[in-house]
């Protein structure tokens, strides 16, 4: 925190519960970000320079249902008033849930859902396809 207080950088804190034994990963994630933002507020780091990353793909034991729970928690994460990172492009947990579906289709559907729920920063592999999807989405929500 001392370094952050001096430098005031833009940061992307990620919740990583891969090696933990949390009873409720979503509550733990919410507590993690709440505590982190309390600390950064004390040192004067503006929320506008913080992008929250729920750590999709870094769930305990790589369990797909925990990643799906994190996807469903984006609306809850919006309460922190920070941009939310959507980094789900071609994640393997999706093919575990729906094994006969194309990775690109699952990625685009999931990204769209995350944008609808507050995701604002997308890390993608399929730039053109994602841009096309977002263009259609934003043109239809008028």
Q: Would you mind describing this structure in some detail?
A:
This protein is mostly helical and 142 residues long. Helices cover 50% and strands 5% of the residues. It has 7 helices and 2 strands. Strands 1-2 form a two-stranded parallel ribbon. The termini are far apart.
Helices and strands in order:
Elements: H1 2-7, H2 25-42, H3 64-72, H4 74-77, E1 84-86, H5 92-97, H6 103-116, E2 119-122, H7 127-140
Parallel strand pairs: 1-2
Q: What is the makeup of the main sheet?
A: 2 strands, parallel
Percentage of β-strand residues: under 5%
Largest sheet, order of strands side by side?
A: 1-2
Broad shape: globular
Key features?
142 residues; mainly alpha; two-stranded parallel ribbon; 2 strands; 50% helix; globular
Gist of the model:
Helix content is 50%, strand content 5%.
């Amino acid at each position: 925190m001392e370094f952050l207080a001096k430098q005031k950088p833009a940061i992307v804190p990620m919740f990583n519960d891969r090696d933990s034994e949390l009873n409720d990963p979503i509550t733990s994630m919410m507590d993690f970000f709440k505590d982190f933002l309390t600390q950064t507020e004390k040192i004067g780091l503006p929320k506008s320079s913080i992008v929250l990353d729920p750590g999709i793909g870094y769930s305990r034991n790589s369990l797909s249902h925990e990643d799906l729970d994190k996807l469903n928690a984006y609306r809850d994460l919006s309460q922190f008033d920070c941009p939310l990172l959507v980094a789900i492009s071609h994640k393997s947990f999706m093919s575990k849930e729906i094994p006969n579906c194309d990775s690109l289709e699952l990625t685009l559907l999931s990204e769209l859902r995350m944008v609808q729920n507050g995701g604002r920063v997308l890390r993608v592999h399929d730039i053109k396809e994602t841009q096309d999807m977002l263009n259609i989405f934003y043109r239809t929500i008028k």
